[in-house]
Amino acid sequence: MTHIDRPTHTRSAPRRDVLISGAGIAGSALAFWLNRHGFAVTVVEKSGTFRSGGYPVDVRGTALDVVERMGLLPRLREQHIDLRRLTFLNGDGSEAASLHPHAVTGGAAGRDLEIRRGDLAHALWTAVRDDVEFRFDDSVETLDQGDHGVDVTFRAGGSRTFDMVFGADGMHSATRELQFGPEERFQRYLGHCFAVFTMRNTLGLSHETLMWNTPGRAAALYAVGDEDEVHAFLNFARPVPPSDAFGGREAARRLLAEVFADAGPPVEDMLTALRDADDVFFDAVGQIRMPRWSSGRVALLGDAAHAPSFLTGQGTSLALVSAYVLAGSLAGREHAAGFAAHERTTRDFVTRNQDLVGKGGALLFPTTARALAQRNERLRDLSSAPSPQPHSAHSALVLPDFGVR
Ligand SMILES: Cc1cc2nc3c(=O)[nH]c(=O)nc-3n(C[C@H](O)[C@H](O)[C@H](O)COP(=O)(O)OP(=O)(O)OC[C@H]3O[C@@H](n4cnc5c(N)ncnc54)[C@H](O)[C@@H]3O)c2cc1C
């Protein structure tokens, strides 16, 4: 049943009615900023409530200024995970290299945030839930735009007209499909597939990641604290995406069991846990690259517009920055000028961060024995190098000041 949270108070005479599809990171952040700029905001989310689960995500560089301007930085700092060690192991369990995670991610120690995705989603949602209307357990069925606005029908019933519609519905965005065409047109497959799920912390890991690599395969356990559960991660190379395995959880499980069949004890335990896990997330590693992020009165943001892939670790930061700039660019402008201003401001920043992918993929998941040996050599060099420089791409945009906090 659709559950609607209505605003408990309204701001003075909001002029434009807008709809956001997706209450994830990008959607909630955009709702926050559009509300601040005086828009009447409705958010439609297909889940029954905001999604609390998930792996840890990074907030870095320019995106830290966004959460600071939202007043969320102190709370998020308290929830910082503080991962201390990243250990790479060979297939037989012997150590290949051990180093601080920032040496690999190009993060800024002491400044960047790494937090559970659910903690960030909750902080964003609580910052805005009293001011905008959330329609949970619902989604957009049809979009029909004209000069007067966008006519929307909802899956749970009913229709409304909005001045603008925003697709913040993630990598596999239904808004993109409805308005811009099929995903294949915009997806850039990066040659790997991955699964994440939680399992018992049988190795007693604490604030650390262990990653086993063999050519073309990786398995990792990620302990965010001293908890009883860890995030398990399985990644494997495939020149062509195994489309059959995206059809359902069982198909994905079967494929993973086949790919990792001879992988040895720690991975065997992961495969056993995978059989019982109820939170398996399986997907291709890919990016979304689009020539334009808007069409008429409909615009995309976050992963829907420009997913950079987890190999860059920048998906969350791009989502936060695009939400802030998009809302500010629309304040006092009509939609076409606002969307164009947003693209002018953020396009380079987004591209620079998407381009980080070459480095991440090659470093973490080599596909040949030779490339793996070279990678391990590089990791050992990195571990003895002085403090690494953060990637300049993370801070490549200075946030405009739109006069609203
Ligand atoms: C394994 C993995 C590891 C990652 N690691 C990192 C990392 O280390 N650092 C990092 O920064 N990022 C990481 N990311 C990426 C990061 O989670 C996303 O890039 C980021 O959350 C982008 O936010 P978003 O709001 O655009 O999309 P999402 O967070 O995916 O939110 C989309 C929302 O839309 C909703 N939705 C979907 N379809 C519909 C529909 N039809 N109608 C209504 N609602 C809908 C969904 O339920 C969801 O709430 C990782 C991702 C994965 C999969």
From TrEMBL:
<feature type="region of interest" description="Disordered">
    <location>
        <begin position="380"/>
        <end position="405"/>
    </location>
</feature>
<keyword id="KW-0503">Monooxygenase</keyword>
<dbReference type="InterPro" id="IPR002938">
    <property type="entry name" value="FAD-bd"/>
</dbReference>
<keyword id="KW-0560">Oxidoreductase</keyword>
<dbReference type="InterPro" id="IPR036188">
    <property type="entry name" value="FAD/NAD-bd_sf"/>
</dbReference>
<dbReference type="InterPro" id="IPR051704">
    <property type="entry name" value="FAD_aromatic-hydroxylase"/>
</dbReference>
<dbReference type="GO" id="GO:0004497">
    <property type="term" value="F:monooxygenase activity"/>
</dbReference>
<feature type="domain" description="FAD-binding">
    <location>
        <begin position="17"/>
        <end position="332"/>
    </location>
</feature>
<feature type="compositionally biased region" description="Low complexity">
    <location>
        <begin position="383"/>
        <end position="396"/>
    </location>
</feature>
<dbReference type="GO" id="GO:0071949">
    <property type="term" value="F:FAD binding"/>
</dbReference>
<protein>
    <submittedName>
        <fullName>FAD-dependent monooxygenase</fullName>
    </submittedName>
</protein>
<dbReference type="Pfam" id="PF01494">
    <property type="entry name" value="FAD_binding_3"/>
</dbReference>
